[in-house]
Design a protein that fits this description.
The complex is a heterotrimer of chains A (459), B (134) and C (505). Chain A is an alpha/beta fold. Chain A has 15 helices and 14 strands. Chain A has three domains: 52 residues, no CATH class; 118 residues, Aspartate Aminotransferase, domain 1; 264 residues, Aspartate Aminotransferase, domain 2, CATH 3.40.640. In chain A, the strands form four sheets. Chain A has a seven-stranded mixed β-sheet, with helices on both faces. In chain A, β9 and β10 form a beta hairpin. The termini of chain A are far apart. Chain B has a single domain, classed as Beta Barrel (OB fold (Dihydrolipoamide Acetyltransferase, E2P)), CATH 2.40.50. Chain B is α+β, with helices and mostly antiparallel strands and 134 residues long. Chain B contains five helices and nine strands; from the N terminus they run βββαβββββααβαα. The two termini of chain B are 16 Å apart. Chain C is α/β, with parallel strands linked by helices and 505 residues long. Chain C has a seven-stranded mixed β-sheet, sandwiched between helices. In chain C, a hairpin with a 4-residue loop joins β8 and β9. Chain C starts with 58 loop residues before the first helix and ends with a helix. Classes of the chains: A alpha/beta (459), B alpha+beta (134), C alpha/beta (505). Chains A and C meet through α1, α2, α3, α4 and α5 of A and α1, α2, α3, α4 and α5 of C.
């Protein structure tokens, strides 16, 4: 009996062999040296029916506790939001899902236009003119941005804030290790978290390729001095790179409006599920300046016409930057990216529109503000650690609660509440602290429930 | 091709104009590339070495791009770039339509033209060379 | 012969489906939000946005718009998709269903390990499946795509040589037939690329390789079967040469579908192996991603793998994320890999099982050889290499004879194929075959469709002789005809705002 995914049964295969005059399939593998020819079965489970696989996978996954079945305050690089059902339906349409890179634009206008729309919407959010059709995630976008800054300016130093997400920093280090660029960390004000501008100015020599800030920062506060950072960077001839969570951009100003030249970030919250941290969606956008656009990594979809000169259509453009043409001189090796996640983001953004995104941003910020206010009523908590405006994430200091954070989080988990990410491992100078995330998913009751639970545990 | 010019094996042409030398790519090169969409012009002041058997980065004077290929422009003479053709920024297609005139790429100040020019081909030699490529 | 394929075409005047920005009306919305708390937000005015220009569409309009776009697209589910080196095989729907479970989509990477044991177990087991399939010792599931996996492999290579105190190794050898991502990834990691030519048999030129290998060689990147679909039968000698020079062997797993269960890269001598889950392991390509590009290594490279690695504690029967890896290269992206994609690959391996995966390679290789033999009899197309032997899962033909005869080139043939309701093979790749058509049918293609494909190419060759203009104006059955790609690159319009600016609106 034929396998459902292999239409040519043994009989048909035998017929095919006869038609082409080959004695057996084995003959087709005869050029594999005997020494390495595998003569045993792979040590893998035997073939399973759909039913058996379903049961098997369900059984394994039953040992996962979805955060939707508890009250969760986790964020820190990937954030849970409500995904409208129609968004999920549309991107599962098999003409999108089972297609590949639109090398034949004539038959792939759907994907091409959807990606052009994604690029366009990212530009509107970030204040940039050009956005590529996706990178792997925020951290690899950052790595590529640093490389791009170095290529454009010919310089070898890249400046980042000391409070950068440590995982992003580690990825960045790997990316700049190729050309061996130097990374410099700028410290922050202990009270407000804000970037130390005077230290930045000291470091800004004519050897700095780019300056990077995250806004909101990894720890949730806003960098209020971004105009000054932009000016300082530009005066020194450096490129200003800003990293964002695009969900914030319905409410917050576009980085392009405060001087950013390149904007990167994590597009996952735009309609993509958290999925244990993958797949994600690397946002990458820049100003329409020839020297920047030509050094941009990733795929770019452009608008054009059919050869009739009239009918509007879309195609991949400026491919001479990419690996399939430039090979070792390419701006990046990236080929497959996160295209379907990008289309998902486009559908999500088209559904929310400007008002929806603003309301969403306000909801996240308002809920977080309420949470911070209520948390402050609990003895021993420092909320937030930094005296600065925040978006929807904030730090909570637990140094004075008289118990370890681990014990506190365990107590919360027993009550079906998942606390924020412990930060001591990443930033020991903050002491016993955690990063909390609040979104539109949280209700007033949810937050009150957290407060009550904490109250009980802290005694 | 054009009389009065000298040609390199990489299909660049050069014309001595007093103390300077004008550089471009040949008709064969533009035809092979297809529609030129972009020319990356060298920086004024950049120095380059004459193209030898083994290509190297020091011999490059920018690139010419079509939608499916990128070709480096190699310097037919050693020297430094005095001027680049600004028209190519707006109209890269001049390389296709007028490779020997309006599509010129840059003006060099050659360091040793009278010696180095002996390494290049004359028009009829280039014509023979092209025949041999088929 | 079926040429009555007509792709959906939503159009009015010279516009196909309008852009989302051109649809909708102010005030329309496609979302709902629960009521908001009233809090005074203390965000400084200089950071608040004043205006955002996005479309305002109702849900109805959003659904129709993207449905229209999907209808003007083509996937494996639409028809034959013989894109060489991409392994466009059928994506089982049960895998999609499993990947949409709440236990997959709604778990957070920072969750207490006790609450995600299922995810860790699935990933751990997938690592071991892949290790067995490739003949390696340890697998890392972090890389998001093939090129990403190649880049990570190059970082591991550098860490390995640095650990041994060997700092003179600054070159990576790449065959001239290699996929562009290979040299690009190695260059990103700071290596100088040394290209070796292919010989008259379409394989790596061994003499050239011996000459290129030296104390500067960090690694050789090789695909096997290679990009012309031929098995590098001298692989054991190749391994000897590179290892003898002190370099590592990296396996580009793009073509693993041609040898699944028949041979293993680890047994051939490869030290680092990469996998494309969106190719060999049937996770959907998504129009360009998300995919996954895990890498597998032999023991001596294990210590350098990115963090965290997944460990299993027998005593407590617990899975655990281990960050305590002093020689690790660190992070190569956020978190642990494209989990939702990994679930699909895991399910696929179970659905096929050991015997099924072997059958995959047998059927895929037979399908490619069937096309090879049948197409060899069609005048106009020729095999450049080894027409007597066999190919593996893909075959590369050259349209040179047809071009010499009629002036019709590979691109014209490919565009006309679209009118037959088939996707075109990869063309102009690999660079070592002129007018190349790279055909990979995969094991999922029924014999009738292979016959139809060969018939179509035969008919196209005939059209090239009798009516070449038909080919030059193809395709005509798709939503749009050929596009002015020159104009697109000369005057790039890359976003709605660039479009408005250019049009003066």
């Amino acid at each position: 009996m034929g396998h459902p995914y292999i239409p040519n049964t043994r009989e048909i295969r035998e017929q095919m062999l006869r038609e082409i005059g080959v004695a057996s399939v084995d003959e087709l593998f005869a050029d594999i040296p005997a020494k390495i020819r595998l003569r045993r079965k792979l040590k893998l489970p035997g073939q399973m029916s759909e039913l058996e696989v379903t049961r098997h996978v369900h059984a394994i996954l039953a040992r996962n506790r979805p955060f939707t079945k508890m009250l969760s305050f986790m964020g820190g690089g990937v954030w849970p939001h409500q995904i409208p059902s129609h968004v999920k339906e549309l991107v599962r349409r098999s003409e999108f899902l089972t297609s590949y890179t639109p090398y034949q634009p004539e038959v792939s206008q759907g994907m091409l236009q959807a990606l052009f729309e994604y690029q366009s919407m990212i530009c509107e959010l970030t204040g940039m003119d050009v956005a590529n059709s996706s990178m792997y995630d925020w951290s690899t976008s950052l790595g590529e941005a640093a490389l791009m800054c170095s290529r454009v300016t010919g310089r070898r130093k890249f400046i980042v804030p000391a409070l950068i997400d440590p995982e992003r920093f580690s990825t960045l280090r790997n990316y700049v290790s190729g050309p061996d660029l130097e990374l410099i960390k700028i410290s922050y004000d202990k009270g407000t978290g804000q970037l130390d501008i005077s230290q930045l100015r000291k470091e800004l020599g004519d050897d700095v390729a780019g300056v990077y800030v995250e806004n909101p920062s990894y720890l949730g506060f806003l960098e209020t001095q971004v105009d000054e950072v932009a000016n300082a960077a530009h005066k020194a001839g450096a490129i200003f790179v800003v990293g964002v969570n695009p969900i914030s951009l319905g409410l917050l100003k576009a980085p392009g409006d405060y001087g950013a030249d390149i904007v990167i970030g994590e597009g996952q919250p735009l309609g993509n599920p958290v999925s244990f941290g993958g797949p994600l969606l690397g946002v990458f956008a820049c100003r329409d300046e020839v020297k920047l656009v030509r050094q941009m990594p990733g795929r770019l979809i452009g608008m054009t016409t059919a050869l009739d000169g009239k009918t509007r259509g879309y195609a991949m453009v400026l491919q001479t930057r990419e690996q399939h043409i430039r090979r070792e001189r390419a701006t990046s090796s990236i080929c497959s990216n996160e295209a379907l996640c990008a289309v998902t983001a486009a559908v999500y953004l088209a559904s929310f529109g400007p008002r929806g995104l603003r309301e969403l941003g306000e909801a996240c910020a308002a809920n977080a503000s309420y949470a911070m206010r209520k948390l402050r009523t609990l003895r021993g908590l420092k909320v937030p650690i930094f005296d600065a405006p925040h978006f929807n994430e904030f730090t909570v200091g637990y140094d004075d609660i008289g118990m370890s954070l681990a014990k506190l989080n365990a107590g919360l988990l027993k009550r079906d509440i998942h606390g924020g990410k412990p930060l001591r491992g990443e930033f020991p100078e903050l002491g016993e602290a955690a990063l909390m995330c609040v979104t539109e998913l949280h209700t007033k009751d949810d937050i009150d429930r957290l407060i009550n639970a904490l109250g009980e545990i802290l005694g | 091709m054009r009389e009065g010019l000298s040609y390199s094996k990489d299909h660049e042409w050069v014309k001595l104009e007093g103390k300077l030398a004008r550089v471009g790519v040949t008709d064969y090169a533009q035809h092979k590339l297809g529609d030129v969409v972009y020319v990356e012009l060298p920086d004024v002041g950049k120095s380059a070495l004459q193209l030898k058997e083994k290509k190297s980065k020091e011999m490059e004077l920018g690139t010419v791009e079509s939608i499916k290929a990128v070709s480096a422009v190699y310097s037919p003479l050693s020297g430094s770039v005095k001027e680049v053709n600004p028209a190519l920024n707006e109209r890269p297609e001049l390389v296709n339509t007028s490779p020997y005139d309006e599509g010129w790429i840059c003006l060099l100040e050659p360091s040793d033209p009278h010696v180095e020019i002996k390494n290049l081909m004359l028009a009829n030699e280039y014509a023979e060379f092209l025949k041999s490529l088929k | 012969m079926m040429t009555n394929y007509r792709q959906a075409r939503w159009a009015s005047d010279s516009l196909l489906e309008p852009l989302a920005f051109e649809l909708g009306k102010p005030g329309r919305s496609g979302y709902t939000l629960p009521p908001k708390l009233h809090e005074q937000l203390k965000i400084p005015k200089n950071l608040l946005r004043e205006k955002l220009e996005l479309p305002e569409l109702s849900e109805v309009e959003v659904v129709r718009h993207y449905t229209h776009l999907s209808q003007m697209n083509y996937g494996v589910d639409s028809g034959f998709y013989p894109l060489g080196s991409c392994t466009m095989k059928y994506n089982p729907k049960i895998c999609e269903e499993l990947a949409c479970l709440e236990e997959v989509e709604c778990i957070h990477p920072h969750q207490d390990e006790e609450t995600v044991q299922g995810a860790l177990e699935l990933m751990y087991k997938l690592e071991r499946f892949l290790a067995e399939i490739a003949g390696v010792d340890r697998v890392c599931l972090h890389p998001s795509a093939g090129a990403h996996g190649e880049f990570v492999a190059m970082l591991l290579t550098r860490a390995y040589h640095k650990f041994k105190g060997d700092v003179s190794r600054n070159q990576v050898i790449v065959p001239d037939s290699a996929h562009g991502t290979n040299p690009a990834s190695a260059a990103m990691a700071g290596y100088e690329i040394v290209t070796v030519p292919s010989d008259g048999r379409g394989r790596v030129d061994l003499k050239a390789l011996e000459a290129a290998a030296s104390e500067h060689t960090a690694a050789l990147m090789l695909t096997n079967p290679n990009t012309v679909g031929l098995f590098e039968d001298k692989i054991l000698k190749i391994a000897e040469v590179i290892h003898g020079a002190g370099g590592l062997l990296f396996y580009d797993g793009a073509n693993l579908n041609g040898i699944l269960g028949e041979a293993r890269p680890g047994d051939m001598g490869f030290d680092i192996v990469h996998f494309n889950l969106h190719k060999t392991f049937s996770t959907p390509h998504g129009g360009g991603g998300p995919g996954a590009g895990p890498i597998g290594v032999k023991d001596e490279l294990e210590k350098f793998l990115p963090v965290p690695v997944i460990e299993y504690e027998e005593k407590h029967k617990r899975y655990h994320l281990n960050y305590d890896r002093p020689h690790s290269i660190g992070k190569v992206k956020a978190f642990y890999g494209n989990f939702r994609v990994l679930v699909k690959a895991y399910a696929y391996i179970l659905l096929m099982g050991a015997e099924g995966l072997s059958e995959v390679a047998e059927a895929a290789v037979l399908n490619a050889n069937y096309i090879m033999r049948k197409l060899s009899n069609v005048r106009g197309y020729e095999l450049k290499f080894d027409s007597i032997g066999s190919c593996k899962h893909e075959v590369v033909f050259s349209v040179d004879p047809l071009k010499k005869e009629t002036g019709i080139c590979a691109k014209d043939v490919a565009k006309r194929l679209l009118d037959f309701g088939m996707y075109a093979p990869t063309y102009y790749f690999p660079p070592i075959v002129s007018e190349a058509l790279m055909i990979e049918p995969t094991e999922c293609e029924p014999k009738e469709e292979l016959d139809r494909f060969v018939e179509a190419l035969k008919e196209i060759a005939g059209e090239a002789r009798s009516n070449p203009e038909k080919l030059r104006s193809a395709p005509t059955s798709t939503a749009i005809g050929r596009l002015d790609e020159v104009k697109a690159s000369r005057e790039p319009i890359l976003s709605w705002r660039m479009y408005r600016r250019q049009a003066g609106r």
